[in-house]
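[step 3/7] fold_predict: job queued, chain A
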Amino acid sequence: MTIPNILTLSRLALIPLVVALLWAEDPAMRWWTFGLFALLAVTDWLDGYLARRLRQHSALGALMDPIADKVLVAALIAGLLARGEIASWDVAGAILILCREFLVSGLREFLAQRDVPLPVTNLAKWKTTVQLVALALLILAPLADPRQLTVISAIWWIATALTLITGYDYLRTAARHMRAT
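[step 4/7] structure written:
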C-alpha cells in the first residue's frame, strides 16, 4: 500500500460524507462541505504527483484513481440534483457529464480487454479540474449572491463543454482502435 494509493482510497471513502453534508441546513456546514470537497479534489492532484515523484506507480492506483474521480463527480452531481441545487437548464449539463463519464469508462474497459490503452489526455485533466471547480462553486451556490449564480452556471457549462469535447475525442480514438482490430 503506497501513499498515493492511500490518498486515492481515502478520497473514495470520504465521498459519502461530502454528499451527506449537503443536507446540513446550517450555512456554516456548507463551508465544511466545501472544505472537505476541496481537500478531496486536492488529493486527486496530490496522489498523481506523489506517484510520479516517489515512483510509486501501481496497478491499483492506475485502476482506482480514475474511478475515484468519476465517483466523486457523479456522487456530487447526484447529491446536488437531489437537493434541487442543479436545476433548470443546468440539469442538462449534469446529464451530459454523467453520460460522458459512463461512456469513457465503458470504452476503457472494452479496450482494456483488447490490451489497448486509452490514456488520459491533458485536455481531460483540465476538464476534471474545471468540473471540480464548478462543483465546488455549486456547493457554495446556496450562500451566493444571485448575480454570482450566473457566473457559477457559466463555469458549469464550460465544464460541460470540455466534458463533451474530451468524450468525443476519446470516442474517436477508441473507434480507430476498434477498426484496426
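[step 5/7] annotate
The radius of gyration is 17 Å.
The chain has a mean pLDDT of 93.
exit 0
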